[in-house]
Amino acid sequence: NTQWKLKQHGRIPRNNTIALVVLDGWGENKPDQYNCIHVAETPTMDKLKEGAPEKWRLIKAHGTAVGLPSEDDMGNSEVGHNALGAGRIFAQGAKLVDIALASGKIYDGEGFKYIKESFETGTLHLIGLLSDGGVHSRLDQLQLLLKGASERGAKRIRVHILTDGRDVLDGSSVGFVETLEKDLSDLRAKGIDAQIASGGGRMYVTMDRYENDWNVVKRGWDAQVLGEAPHKFRNAVEAVKKLREDPKISDQYIPPFVIVDENDKAVGPIVDGDAVVTFNFRADRMVMLAKALEYEDFDKFDRVRFPKIRYAGMLEYDGELKLPSHYLVSPPEIDRTSGEYLVHNGVRTFACSETVKFGHVTFFWNGNRSGYFNQELEEYVEIPSDVGITFNVQPKMKAIEIAERAKKAILSRKFHQIRVNIPNSDMVGHTGDIEATVVACKAADEAVKMIIDAIEQVGGIYVITADHGNAEEMVKRNKSGEPALGKDGKIQVLTSHTLQPVPIAIGGPGLPNDVRLRSDLPGAGLANVAATVINLHGYEAPADYEPSLIEVYDA
Ligand code: 3PG
Ligand code: CO
Fold this sequence. Notes:
Mean pLDDT: 97
Radius of gyration: 24 Å
Bound molecules: 3-phosphoglyceric acid, cobalt (II) ion
């Protein structure tokens, strides 16, 4: 029985208008030509930094501070927004799967028992992202699952791979496919009929999110379920190598292919009686496929065939939709989020981003839960993202539109919290296009300015922060910190997130004069932001939240 009522804060008044801005993929790093945030004109963020230490500081956004297995794990938007919204650190999917695999508990769970029913007569299909990025999935977990399933009766296994190049270096997919092929051939030596059946690049095949473009999921469906694709190969390593010969094709965008036998027949379409596991632990880019695999009623694209399968996710991907209904590992129980508390205390909330990040400030923010807590008090606005392009060609994305919409919400005075995600530095950073990323960072800075200006007009407070690093480091470094060179002698562009800390800045006319950021809490991270924001709304944070970053001092 949760006590939702929050105690009033002794020193900070209620009913302020608070703009809470999350710059996606905006970390702090030393000035350098590969730090796009440094290279870009960012007068607004530069000015905020001058407020250090009382109005600006750094917080951790990677590793154990956000519930990831180790300090080598870079931050990501799922764990970042979970921590920002929930105010506590939860062991995240990556870690929970590690634990379940290490203890073997994964095989005793309901999900595995359910799919195991098909092992005698059907094929086990494994679909997911093939890399060691640790953001959506991990290769070593797939390897353990392959071993565990084959030891427990899976006789025929088909793997449907999605190549990465976004959480790991572009070009690394060939190596991952080779590793997987080696494992599968070891299984074959043991008499198990195990093969890769299909593949494609994650941004072009299957892993769309927030229903931005169902064609992406359809391309995957055609290859994985129907066994149909524009490209056919006998071998997946050859497929990836060959398709990458086109200079326009990177790992993220490899077109769909199927593996065929000597008669040109697809080796692994999904048919009645089969079992399917989507082995990504992260939710956002698996929800759409999960719907296609599970929902009887489905009108997003023509599935042609809807096989009767036993399907389980690595995790439950949506706690509200209970999707999928079977899963191998229970997700973190992210309860009592700040959003839910604030709504119970009458705080009116507006949340907005463009499609590709919309779920970050709603679904992830609310603990991987879709929908509203109380629609009378909340409004979530999604600005449609451009579809079918890579964002380096449109680096301004919808930053200004998001800021306009936030400004309107602020000036309407209808809301106490206006929460937005500005995607540019992350989405363009992931393309590895350094020039475009500089443009992206400038656009994000302009959006922040618009929001701060609106806050000035209504006498409110702003909190500007980020979910993890990306655009501040666009090159892979060698041990001495110099840009690492690839085999071709060129620098290795870093498309992924980073281990860098992120800034948090507070200010605005509504911020009481005697409120400042604490200079202790050296280990503070994203999870400390929720209590901070609850305080700024005029309430004490729940006792088990990570401590607030602010203090009231005697001026
Ligand atoms: C993606 O899904 O685009 C990347 O793997 C991670 O990016 P995000 O965590 O910023 O969404
Ligand atoms: Co990202």
